[in-house]
Each structure stands twice: as C-alpha cells, then as structure tokens.
UniProtKB/TrEMBL annotation:
Key words of the record: Methyltransferase, Transferase
BP term (GO), one: methylation
Top-level taxon of origin: Bacteria
GO molecular function, one term: methyltransferase activity
Matches recorded under InterPro entries: Diverse_substrate_MTase (IPR051052), Methyltransf_25 (IPR041698), SAM-dependent_MTases_sf (IPR029063)
Location of the Methyltransferase domain: 46-131
Biological source species: Streptomyces similanensis
Taxonomic lineage: Bacteria, Bacillati, Actinomycetota, Actinomycetes, Kitasatosporales
Protein name: Class I SAM-dependent methyltransferase
Length: 253
C-alpha cells in the first residue's frame, strides 16, 4: 500500500490554528452536490476527522446528520463549536473512541495529515461493517494568463512556495490507497467542479490560509501579497477560479 509522508510535517499540519478566524472566513464551503451525495448514504452517526472550523460538519448537520468532530488544534475546534458542532480536541491517532461506532467517517482537506497506516486501521475499527469513509480535497486554479505572471512573482519573492492558484494535477487514474488493504473497497472517486470570483483582498485571504504561505517570513509574505494584489488590480480587480473537490469514497467490508 502506497502512502504519503505529509503527515510527518507536524509544524505545517499544526500551523492552521494561528489563522483559524481567517480560515473560517476565506475558505469556501464544500459543494452542495457533494454534501447531498454524502447525506444520501443515510448515516445515523458521522465522524469528521480533522473537522477544522466545522465547514463540512455544519453542512452535513444542516442535512439532518448527527456529526461528531475531532480536531487537533483548539483554536480551530473553538470556531467549530460556535457552529454547534460537538468536537474533541485531539488527533485521530490518539483519540479514544470509547466503544463508539459510526456509519460514516468524513475528512475534508485533512486526511493527508493523518498517519496513513494508523488512520486506515483506526477508521476500520470505528466504522460499522458497511459504513463508509469519505475523504475529499478542494483546489482552486486561477483562470487565464495570470498564472504566468504569478509564477514570475513567486520565483522572485517566494521561491520554494507553491504558486497559489497553480494548475491542478489530473486525478485520472488515481487509485484509492485504502482499496489496497483488506478492510475497505473503493465505492467511487468523483470530482465536483465549481468556480469562484474573488477580488484581490479575497484571493489574498484565501491563499493566506494555505500552510506554506502562512509559514513564510512575515515581511516576505507581505511583499508577496502586495505584488499579487497589484497584479490583480492591474487585471481589472477580480480573478476567477476553476475550482473542484475530489472525493474518494470507500466502504468498510
């Protein structure tokens, strides 16, 4: 089974809480079609791993599902609780389920921070047979030639930082790593397409919640953001994204 090692970068994984309010303000919600599809699984108890500020949990709760969240950062968890989400502040790996079992486990833009081998085994233990695990990630790609100009700005002012709005790699042929084990079978892999139109401040707000941008030296980040805002202003004051959310859905055997 092939797994990512991104979860080992704990400093990056735990950097989001310092910008919890901005994360909640600028990160968009997840596609309604995705939330509707998950609600159709008719889960009576849902576990949200890495629930963050509760965007996915709140959307599922609004569809009548009972959602319980796990979030390692207390600042993110505090925002989720304000939304009415029940949250325990802990990592999934160290969390004690105390015998609780769930029909659906979701993880929104967060599963890559979970130790993959431990996470897969624990997910199997807390899901009832026939239950589902849904992991999904969003991406935002800026439309048009602005990408080339951004690339030059990043090369000069933020070398080594991934260009915010860079082209999304194709998900064609991607295999769900959970399906390589004995506990899960892949049910579906889907991409939900959508778009955003943002002004300069909104785009800066969004990329400021990306962990590699947030961890930049503050002065360097300030210069980078000023250059990006100037570029957007020069191009009419708004940018449009081709956004998407990629879902991997598997069923507990």
């Amino acid at each position: 089974m092939s797994f990512s090692t991104r979860h080992l970068d704990r400093a990056r994984a735990e950097s989001f809480g310092a910008a919890a309010e901005d994360y909640d303000r600028f990160r968009p919600t997840y596609p309604a079609d995705l939330m509707d599809d998950l609600a159709r699984l008719r889960a009576s108890e849902v576990l949200d791993v890495g629930c963050g500020t509760g965007k996915a949990a709140a959307a599922l709760s609004a569809r009548g599902l009972s959602v319980f969240g796990i979030e390692p950062d207390h600042r993110m968890a505090q925002v989720a609780r304000r939304r009415g989400i029940r949250v325990e502040t802990t990592t999934f790996e160290t969390w004690d389920p105390r015998g609780r079992r769930f029909d659906l486990l979701v993880s929104a833009d967060a599963w890559h921070w979970v130790n993959p081998a431990e996470g897969a085994g624990k997910a199997a233990r807390v899901l009832v047979p026939g239950g589902h695990i849904a992991r999904f990630w969003s991406f935002h790609v800026l439309d048009g030639p602005i990408l080339e100009d951004l690339g030059r700005i990043y090369a000069e002012h933020a070398p080594g930082v991934e260009v915010g709005g860079a082209r999304q790699k194709s998900t064609a042929g991607v295999r769900d790593p959970l399906s390589a084990g004995d506990d899960f079978v892949s049910v579906a892999q889907r991409e939900y397409r959508w778009s955003l139109t943002l002004n300069g401040d909104e785009w800066i707000g969004l990329i400021s919640t990306f962990s590699d941008h947030h961890r930049m030296d503050p002065r360097s980040r300030s210069v980078l953001f000023a250059k990006i805002r100037g570029l957007i202003d020069d191009r009419g004051g708004t940018v449009r994204t081709t956004s998407g959310t990629f879902l991997q859905l598997a069923r507990r055997v």
